[in-house]
Amino acid sequence: MQQPGQTFDVHVHLDSEEAFIAFQGVGQLYMYDQWNDVEPGDVLFAPPGIPHGARKAATAGTRPSSSPAAVRPPSTPPCTAPRACPRT
């Protein structure tokens, strides 16, 4: 659950893919160098090595947004400085 103003920093999983599914509220997901508006029913898939993240704007209402994510295969801690991530 993300409250207004919260951000899940842009990061990279070098060897894992991640899928976000928006269930509640509105927010934004980052991928391919841009923030994309999402609403319930939207799905975002981030392949390995692609920077991605999530945020809920402080002005996006008071209802929290819910976009559970699944990572496969289980990931080592993500690299949060994409330009400095080691390449495989």
Structural write-up:
The termini are far apart. The relative contact order is 0.39. The protein has one domain (7-71): Jelly Rolls (Sandwich), CATH 2.60.120.10. The strands form 2 sheets. It has a 4-stranded antiparallel sheet with strand order 1-6-3-4, with no helix packed on it. Strands 5-2-7 form a 3-stranded antiparallel sheet, with no helix packed on it. It is 0% helix and 36% strand. It is an all-beta fold and 88 residues long. It contains no helices and 7 strands. The model has no long low-confidence stretch (mean pLDDT 75). It is globular and about 35 Å long.
Question: What is the straight-line distance between the termini?
Answer: 32 Å
Q: Tell me the name of the CATH homologous superfamily.
A: Jelly Rolls
At CATH level 2, the architecture is Sandwich
Which range best describes the helical content: under 10%, 10-25%, 25-40%, 40-55%, 55-70% or over 70%?
under 10%
Strand order of the largest sheet: 1-6-3-4
- The number of helices is 0
List the uncertain runs.
none
Structural class based on helices, strands and sheet pairing: mainly beta
Order of helices and strands: EEEEEEE
Number of DSSP-assigned strands: 7
Q: What is the residue-averaged pLDDT?
A: 75
What is the third-level CATH name, the topology?
A: Jelly Rolls
- How many strands, which pairing sense, and closed or not: the largest β-sheet? 4 strands, antiparallel
Count of domains: 1
Strand content: 35-45%
The backbone outline, from C-alpha atoms, is globular
Which CATH top level class fits?
A: Mainly Beta
Q: What would you report as the Rg, rounded to the nearest angstrom? A: 13 Å
